[in-house]
């Protein structure tokens, strides 16, 4: 117990001596500190992804793609002489854990910016934190409208087409090409389903006979599929994540229910859905054959089009800098985000600051070109991502385009065809954007 | 099941009196002194560690509050609960509803936290009333149902509770007087992360003080009596049902407070944050630390918070890529758990006590 007494005495001594600090000096501390996460030779970016747990299949591949592209850029000398250091951490798709790992990234790793953090519930846990700390929160990997609130969240930017515009484009396609169809909606019961329903009803209000919602986590979708069948829906639009594509397919197979299926882009990756089908059916269904003839949308080149120059670039990058495994659509997604980030960093100029990169994306982001099919909607008062998709059909393990790229915006903005030819990657595979200021 | 657990010893009390004569006589004063010393240590640690360590300590504080409550229930009263994660959810959601996403026009934070504890205690009373009739695996099953059902409720009432995306919770601003005091003492700024750590640890110390007194007093003796031999306890005139419900209520109130701290630290209450994994994590913390001891609950919570990132960073240091390193953490965690169960079933505190006892005997 002497030790305790000693500790107490010591603590008291420290307290007394520390009290000498006294009052606070006025107006101090506004020096010209170096920007957090930036050195003359490096820039550090962070991200959170589900690397373990239920959401890990597919999504855990995205940061490996991003990292491979950054390594490719670093091997070519980096951006303005800086190597990009990319740190991604596991949040297991649990918002409590997201908040912990983002603390680690911001406070411990001292990242300059966040890039591509994945998930709506997970990322919304750190939205306020990143904005109040003034950390650029670029290109969130989710189609929620939450990332497009520049007045409230000035540091946060969306990236992929939001669910509302995707649903609008699908809705118009169905109204034009299946005017007699009795339409059912199969929706995830959160922003994903809600935003999508708003978009779809804009064109299909009179055709919709049922809207069924499932709760993520509950793997029994039999009631929903049976209700769609009972309502006589002969065309079902699904806004759901990949595992629910597999579950809805298996369930409709069981009920001998054969509507025309249309899945949103996030739920339709044939390779992942195929492997999930095999797992859920315990081997009874072995590939994505069930998805034959299913309609979906696209806004990035896929690995099923090896002749696309962008796919060729990404294949080259993956072969040179990738880890284990093949190039997948998820890795293409990660590389495309990385490609956008490189443009943002170039636009921020040779001496990037946190404010500066946000400013640069607002000024120049609308004209960034890359693998994405339609332009971004970035401006000083919009932080919304890619503005369009094209409708495609899955056939023979690849996809056929049914429409040209269609672009639109939220609300009652009209849908029109994208102008301009498809973009070509630069010869060296690295974008070249001039400083925006 | 409970018979094998380590029982806090009360035998050596007379010896202690002689050894440490300078210690205050009354239990309350002794615990109070310990808390004051702990408070000084906490202040020093928080002031001289990095903001990231502060945020980790804030995380540890809410695990520890809940684990301390669970220790009282499981270690002292012999009731098992797999539903404490759900009770934390009740506390977090109550906090979220009362504070709101902007925090404007809201009640003062201490009041909100008390309300969270009170609401959760009420839920605990209901669950406890059901639990008092159940034993062992049946009780585990019933509380497991709680852990599964409560996050579902949040999704069902999505208009008030925010569904899958959850309720955003305003993080409290650092009060001016607090900031000024810290500046006066240490000439340090008080960023939000540090203030949250103070909030969490302040609450934790208060909870520990109350629980330690409860355990040392008549209530604690009654709880232990019920745990050790319910027939004897009943013969002695103890009403088992009432005692069990009370234990559940106290434990639930702690979980509610922990949920409130979690809410303001994480700034969000979402169903995916309160899965069965959280409940199991708390139970793990209690068991690994040492069942029935508050210090054990503290140690176990530290393990929950500090082990996974340490393992991940070791993995990255050893040349694994990010994904592999992330997968290493749950694996190592499992291995540690199995090793503790095999080699030290009384937990860390149990081992320390054994070692201490041996040293004293050989002197």
UniProtKB/TrEMBL annotation, chain A:
Alphabetized InterPro entries for the sequence: Leu-bd, Peripla_BP_I
Q: Which UniProt keywords apply?
A: Signal
Instruction: Give the domain of life.
Output: Bacteria
Q: Give the matching SUPFAM superfamilies.
A: Periplasmic binding protein-like I
Q: Which is one Pfam family of this protein?
A: Peripla_BP_6
Leucine-binding protein domain segment(s):
42-397
Q: Is Signal given among the entry's keywords?
A: yes
Gene3D superfamilies attached here? 3.40.50.2300
Record keyword S-adenosyl-L-methionine present: no
Q: Where would one find the signal peptide in this protein?
A: 1-18
Question: Which segments carry the region annotation Disordered?
Answer: 409-437
Query: Which family does the UniProt entry place this protein in?
Result: Belongs to the leucine-binding protein family.
Q: What is this protein called?
A: ABC-type branched-subunit amino acid transport system substrate-binding protein
Automatic annotation (TrEMBL), chain B:
Enumerate the Pfam families for this protein. Answer: BPD_transp_2 (PF02653)
- CC terms in the record's Gene Ontology section: plasma membrane
Where it sits in the cell: the answer is: Cell membrane
TM segments?
28-48, 60-78, 85-101, 107-131, 138-157, 195-214, 245-266, 272-291, 298-319, 331-356
Q: Give the main location.
A: membrane
Q: Report the membrane topology from the UniProt record.
A: Multi-pass membrane protein
The answer to keyword Membrane applying to this record is: yes
Official protein name in the record: Branched-chain amino acid transport system permease protein
What is the species listed in this Swiss-Prot or TrEMBL entry? Pseudonocardia hierapolitana
């Amino acid at each position: 117990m002497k030790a305790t007494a000693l500790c107490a005495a010591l603590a008291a001594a420290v307290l007394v001596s520390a009290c000498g600090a006294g009052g606070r000096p006025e107006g101090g501390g506004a020096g010209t500190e170096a920007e957090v996460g930036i050195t003359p030779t490096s820039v550090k970016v962070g991200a959170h992804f589900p690397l373990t747990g239920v959401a890990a299949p597919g999504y855990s591949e995205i940061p490996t793609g991003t990292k491979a592209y950054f390594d490719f850029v670093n091997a070519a000398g980096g951006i303005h002489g800086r190597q990009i250091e990319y740190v991604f951490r596991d949040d297991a798709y649990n918002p409590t854990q997201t908040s912990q790992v983002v603390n680690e990234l911001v406070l411990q790793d001292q990242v300059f910016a966040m890039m591509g953090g994945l998930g709506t519930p997970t990322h919304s846990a750190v939205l306020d934190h990143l904005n109040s700390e003034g950390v650029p929160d670029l290109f969130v990997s989710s189609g929620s409208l939450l990332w497009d609130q520049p007045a409230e969240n000035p540091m946060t930017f969306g990236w992929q087409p939001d669910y509302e515009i995707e649903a609008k484009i699908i809705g118009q396609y169905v109204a034009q090409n299946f005017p007699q169809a009795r339409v059912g909606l199969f929706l995830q019961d959160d922003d994903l389903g809600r935003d999508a329903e708003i978009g779809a009803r804009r064109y299909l209000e009179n055709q919709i006979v049922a809207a069924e919602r499932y709760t993520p986590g509950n793997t029994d979708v039999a009631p929903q599929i049976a209700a769609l069948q009972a309502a006589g829906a002969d065309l079902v639009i699904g806004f759901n994540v990949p595992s629910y594509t597999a579950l809805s397919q298996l369930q409709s197979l069981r009920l001998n229910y054969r509507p025309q299926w249309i899945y949103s882009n996030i739920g339709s990756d044939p390779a992942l859905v195929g492997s999930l089908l095999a797992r859920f059916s315990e081997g009874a269904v072995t590939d994505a054959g069930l998805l034959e003839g299913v309609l979906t949308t696209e806004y990035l080149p896929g690995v099923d089009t090896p002749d696309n120059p962008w796919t060729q670039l990404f294949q080259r990058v993956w072969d040179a800098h990738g880890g284990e495994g093949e190039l997948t659509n998820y890795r293409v997604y990660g590389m495309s985000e990385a490609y956008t980030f490189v443009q943002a960093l170039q636009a921020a100029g040779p001496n990037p600051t946190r404010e500066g990169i946000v400013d640069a994306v607002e000024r120049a982001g609308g004209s960034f070109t890359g693998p994405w099919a339609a332009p971004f909607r970035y401006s000083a008062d919009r932080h919304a991502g890619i503005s369009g998709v094209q409708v495609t059909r899955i056939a023979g393990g690849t996809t056929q385009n049914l429409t040209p790229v269609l672009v639109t915006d939220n609300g009652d903005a009209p849908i029109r065809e994208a102008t301009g030819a498809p973009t070509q990657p630069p010869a060296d595979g690295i974008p070249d954007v001039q400083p925006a200021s | 099941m409970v018979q094998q657990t380590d029982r806090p010893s009360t035998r050596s009390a007379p010896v202690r009196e002689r050894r440490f004569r300078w210690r205050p006589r009354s239990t309350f004063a002794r615990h109070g002194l310990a808390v004051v010393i702990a408070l000084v240590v906490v202040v020093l640690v928080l002031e001289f560690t990095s903001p990231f360590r502060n945020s980790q300590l804030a995380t540890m504080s809410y695990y520890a509050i809940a684990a301390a409550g669970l220790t009282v229930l499981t270690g002292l009263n012999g009731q098992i609960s797999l539903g404490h994660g759900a009770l934390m959810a009740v506390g977090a959601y109550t906090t979220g509803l009362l504070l709101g996403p902007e925090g404007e026009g809201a009640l003062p934070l201490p009041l909100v936290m008390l309300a969270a504890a009170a609401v959760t205690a009420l839920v605990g009373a209901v669950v406890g009333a059901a639990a008092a009739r159940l034993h062992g695996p049946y009780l585990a099953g019933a509380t497991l149902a709680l852990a599964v059902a409560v996050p579902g409720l949040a999704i069902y009432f999505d208009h008030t509770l925010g569904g899958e995306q959850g309720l955003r919770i305003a993080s409290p601003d650092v009060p001016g007087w607090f900031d000024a005091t810290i500046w006066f003492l240490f000439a340090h700024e008080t960023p939000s992360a540090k203030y949250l750590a103070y909030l969490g640890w302040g609450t934790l110390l208060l909870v520990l003080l109350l629980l330690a007194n409860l355990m040392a007093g008549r209530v604690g003796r009654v709880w232990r009596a019920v745990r050790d031999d319910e027939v004897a306890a009943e013969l002695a005139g103890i009403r088992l049902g009432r005692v069990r419900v009370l234990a559940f209520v106290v434990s639930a109130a702690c979980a509610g407070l922990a949920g409130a701290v979690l809410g303001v630290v994480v700034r969000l209450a979402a169903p995916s944050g309160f899965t069965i994994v959280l409940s199991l994590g708390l139970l793990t913390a209690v068991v690994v630390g040492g069942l029935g001891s508050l210090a054990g609950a503290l140690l176990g919570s530290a393990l929950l918070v500090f082990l996974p990132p340490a393992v991940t960073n070791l993995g990255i240091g050893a040349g694994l890529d990010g994904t592999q390193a992330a997968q290493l953490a749950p694996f190592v965690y499992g291995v540690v758990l199995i090793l503790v169960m095999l080699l030290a079933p009384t937990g860390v505190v149990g081992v320390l006590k054994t070692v201490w006892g041996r040293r004293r005997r050989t002197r």
